[in-house]
Specification:
Layout lengths: L1 H17 L5 E5 L20 H7 L5 E6 L16 E7 L4
């Protein structure tokens, strides 16, 4: 029983530390759609940066922003969010 508990504890530790370092990519484009979108698929980007920031729950995230004009208000990066903005992303049409 102790070996089983030890193995399970090690598994949980590795899951939290090993996979937490894998970044998540989000995509934004002026031609994107915010409704019912997780913003993580380059083929279906979101329309607003604000929508992406609401989706970010991971500690390490990249927001890939396509060239264009964005009018945003009330954007906020929450404590614990480690977000990198990457400009110049080109949406594959």
């Amino acid at each position: 029983m102790r070996i089983l508990l030890f193995t399970f504890s090690v598994f949980l530790l590795l899951q939290q530390t090993g996979f937490a370092d894998v970044p998540i990519n989000y995509y934004v484009s002026p031609g994107g759609v915010d409704a019912n979108n997780t913003c993580t698929n380059s083929g279906t980007p979101c329309h607003s940066i604000k929508k992406v920031l609401k989706q970010v729950t991971h500690t390490k995230s990249f927001i890939n922003i396509a060239r264009g004009a964005y009018t945003e208000a009330g954007m906020e990066i929450l404590p614990g969010q480690n977000v990198t903005f990457v400009g110049g992303w080109v949406r594959n049409l």
